[in-house]
Write a structure and sequence with these properties.
- The complex is a heterodimer of chains A (about 325) and B (about 325).
- With about 325 residues, chain A is mostly helical.
- Chain A is built from 14 helices and two strands.
- Chain B is mainly alpha-helical.
- Classes of the chains: A mainly alpha (about 325), B mainly alpha (about 325).
- At the A-B interface, helix 4, helix 13 and helix 14 of A face helix 7 and helix 17 of B.
Chain lengths: ~325, ~325
């Protein structure tokens, strides 16, 4: 476990450095399982990359209600000036729920911007039958309402936003250091070109996600495929994002009507109003893509339930090291 | 060895399916070489290619010493298409095209370039990167047997057709330079096809001159469509998409409704297109319709209904009407 945490800290530091976040000193493990993450200079710090538009909060957070701990004020008060933070795993999880919740808020606001609305009208809705457009509009509005419930506006002031971004970066590092799975995934969810192509952390992270049986983490891990491709180890799986999205639903992620997963899909990709995520995905990829994904989906679910999911992890030789396993 | 060769071919084929048509290649190239940055023709010709790639000695070349270029007649173009569609061994066709290109036939030159380009995609990969069995395995592993057979079928035909080329070509600086010269020549032709193909480089599309030029392209496109050949919707779908509010898939589905061979059983027609050659074959464009999602297909069908309505009412200009908010191309 200590090895994992130490590795996690290393990866976060590497990622932060890789994307241009310059901390005053690197986070260090002290061997106790509690690690100090160092805040960075709010002026020079850039935000850790936000990753893809669609990321979910924990499946246990379907209501979108923030955790009982007010992360913004209780867990991590305004400590952007080199104040080290220690988080318990529980605090780290609460922080990540809030972080992902914030991202959903941003996703929803972006999807409702006038130019996005105009684009939907021009490129999609004007060509579809009126009755299906009416249903889509209603579903889009309903998803937006659910997703915006409880959202707070980001600061309008640029300097304030920069400070907030730097604080988020520090918070993420602290959550990774605490060993939170979502945080470890998030830390690797950086744009291409930022950070290594095949981080050592990928493989042990995948193993931990499998062991956790957390379908939300499984889904988010699958989404990393877009960033790391075959480095993820899914060497035989085509359309890995599609496959893992379906698998996560099979393994317990809430993908039904009114779920956060479906709302995110609707706002990010359009085509709202499906009864569940599978239906939405089936409508968004070609039939032969979906059929291919189905084949792998069944195999993965069977192996997952049999505890043999590592069978799908064929390490790419370019992935160096043991990864701290 | 045979397995490796077939493997490499299939890798190429899978990638080549996504390659752009010559029309778009011209646009892409011209984007890299904006008009404002063009050097004089003489200077350009005098500049040796920077790439170490081999120069093809017998390649037709446009230069000051070439005869004045001209466009072949619509009838000749139709004959060329017919021959190309029904021939596997392209040796004679290639010889003929080269001879005509040397005599200044712009369309012969363009067709020759298209064949070389399509085949060169494969040859370049095969010669430079070598076969990649892992990639082949990954690319085909997810295909069901029918789909895999379809890929193989098309690849076998392409391999035979490309085998007619004595020396394949890849995209080189010299090739790009030719494209630049083609663009200059296109501007000197006054026929509708030339005016339509004389596209505006992307960085210049929003300039007053670019907007005016795109409008001239629309007028020329409407002139082409006025001839009443639904295959023009296929041949120029990508170019029209860049000018209008309709997508390439919308034009292709409209063409399908207007072509008796497709309208009766679109799925079978599209499948046959996917199974056929990708080398200089207009019908290959239909294969991409298989990759549409159900939602994309519904949208494209909505567009095609409007396109067909305009076609039947001879409102050709409206088949190229720009997007409402701005005149930039794209589509979906």
């Amino acid at each position: 476990m200590k090895g994992w945490i130490g590795l996690g800290v290393f990866v976060v530091v590497a990622v932060i450095v890789g994307v241009g976040v310059i901390g005053n000193e690197p986070a260090t493990g002290d061997g106790t399982g509690v690690v100090r993450a160092t805040a960075a200079d709010p002026v020079t710090v850039m935000p850790v990359a936000l990753g893809p538009a669609v990321v979910t909060a924990s499946s246990s957070d379907r209501s979108g209600t923030p955790a009982e701990i007010d992360v913004a004020t209780d867990v991590l008060p305004d400590r952007t000036n080199a104040e080290p933070d220690r988080l318990s795993l529980e605090q780290a999880s609460a922080h990540m729920r809030q972080r992902l919740r914030d991202r959903d808020c941003r996703l929803t606001r972006e999807a409702n911007q006038p130019e996005k609305t105009a684009e939907r009208e021009e490129t999609e809705w004007q060509w579809l039958p009126a009755e299906s457009v009416a249903a889509e509009r209603a579903a889009f509005a309903e998803s937006s309402r659910r997703m915006l419930d409880g959202c707070h506006d980001d600061p309008a002031d640029e300097e304030q936003r920069r400070i907030l971004d730097s604080r988020r970066a520090v918070e993420l590092a602290a959550a990774v250091a605490a060993g939170d799975l979502q945080a470890r995934i998030e830390a690797l969810d950086v744009p291409r070109g930022a950070g290594p192509d095949y981080p050592d952390e990928l493989y042990p992270l995948a193993r931990d996600v499998f062991a956790s049986k957390d379908p939300e983490a499984l889904y988010r891990l699958g989404r990393l495929s877009d960033r790391y491709g075959q480095g993820m180890g899914w060497r035989d799986i085509p359309e890995p994002e599609l496959v893992w999205s379906l698998v996560a639903c099979d393994l317990g992620r809430d993908c039904g009507s009114g779920s956060r997963a479906l709302d995110q899909d609707c706002l990010a990709y359009g085509g709202c109003g499906h009864p569940n995520l599978e239906s939405a995905l089936r409508d968004r990829v070609s039939p032969h893509q979906f059929e291919s994904a189905q084949t792998f989906r069944q195999g993965i679910v069977e192996h997952y339930r049999a505890g043999e999911l590592e069978r799908f992890m064929q390490r790419d030789p370019r992935m160096r090291g043991s990864g701290g396993g | 060895m045979v397995t490796l060769a077939v493997g490499a071919l299939l890798v190429w084929w899978l990638q080549a399916r996504d390659q752009t048509s010559p029309d778009t290649v011209a646009e892409t190239v011209s984007t890299q070489l904006p008009v404002a940055q063009e050097t004089s023709e003489a200077q350009a010709i005098a500049t040796p290619p920077e790439s170490p790639a081999p120069v093809i000695p017998d390649q037709p070349n446009l230069s000051r010493t070439s005869p004045p270029p001209f466009r072949s007649s619509p009838q000749q173009r139709a004959v060329d298409r017919e021959r190309l569609a029904n021939t596997v061994d392209l040796t004679e066709i290639l010889d003929d095209l080269e001879r005509r290109a040397r005599a200044g036939d712009f369309d012969a030159h363009m067709l020759l370039r298209r064949i070389r380009s399509d085949c060169g995609q494969f040859a370049g990969r095969f010669g430079i990167e070598g076969p990649d069995p892992d990639r082949l395995e990954r690319n085909l592993a997810h295909l069901d047997p029918d789909e895999r057979e379809l890929v193989m079928s098309s690849a076998r035909i392409d391999m035979a057709r490309c085998g007619s080329l004595a020396q394949p070509e890849e995209i080189t600086p010299q090739w790009r330079e030719e494209a630049r010269l083609f663009r200059q020549q296109l501007a000197s032709f006054s026929d509708a096809l030339s005016r339509f193909q004389n596209s505006v480089p992307l960085p210049l599309q929003e300039t007053p001159a670019g907007i005016a030029q795109r409008e001239r392209q629309r007028i020329a496109g409407a002139e082409i469509l006025r001839d009443g050949d639904p295959m023009d919707l296929v041949r120029h779908a990508r170019g029209m998409q860049s000018l209008s509010r309709f997508s390439e898939a919308g034009y292709l589905l409209a063409a399908c409704q207007l072509l008796p061979s497709c309208a009766g059983d679109p799925d079978a027609f599209i499948l046959a297109a996917a199974r056929g050659t990708t080398i200089a074959n207009d019908l290959a464009a239909f294969a991409q319709l298989r990759d549409l999602s159900p939602r994309q297909r519904r949208i494209a069908l909505g567009q095609s209904a409007e396109i067909v309505s305009h076609w039947r009412n001879q409102r050709f200009a409206e088949m190229l009407s720009p997007k409402p908010r701005n005149a930039r191309g794209g589509g979906r």
